[in-house]
Design a protein that fits this description.
Layout (H helix, E strand, L loop, with lengths): L8 E3 L21 H10 L4 E3 L29
Antiparallel strand pairs: 1-2
Length: 78
């Protein structure tokens, strides 16, 4: 089975922007996100969605546990 390819889909922004959440339509943490932006620009789309992409759920936002132990210890504070 071949590796899935990113497939952005043209998306028309909702009329009420105050109820719009980009995370519902895009995975901004996807490793291919910049390539999908390039496709949208090249095709002159108003916006795009990742909803039909096989990689939509592949990369998730990093959680606090990803950063909890990456900071140097500060032994100078009480």
């Amino acid at each position: 089975m071949p590796c899935p390819q990113p497939r952005p889909t043209e998306f028309h922004l909702p009329l009420r922007a105050d109820s719009f959440s980009i995370e519902e339509y895009r995975n901004v943490h996807c490793r291919f996100y910049s390539g999908c932006i390039d496709v949208a620009v090249r095709e002159d789309w108003e916006s795009f969605t990742c909803a039909k992409c096989p990689l939509f759920q592949a990369d998730k936002a990093p959680g606090a546990s990803s950063y909890a132990f990456t900071q140097p210890a500060d032994f100078g504070r009480p």
